[in-house]
Amino acid sequence: MVHAMVFGAGYPAILAVQAVAVTEPTITTGTNASNSRARTRSEFIERHTDSVFPNLIHYRNNIYTAAEFFDAYNGLVFRHGVINTRNSRGVRALNVTLINGTSPPRAVQGVLQATPPAPLNVQVVTPEPEAVPVLTPPADISFDFRALEAAGFAYEDIQAMFEQEVIRLVNEIRAEHGLPILALHLELANVARLRAEEMVTHNVRGHLSPTTGLEHTAHANAMGLNLRYAGENSARGSRNPQAVVNAWMNSAGHRDFILSGHSTSRFPHLGYIGVGFYFDEITAWTLWLTCNLPPR
Question: What is the pTM for the complete model shown?
Answer without folding.
Answer: 0.62
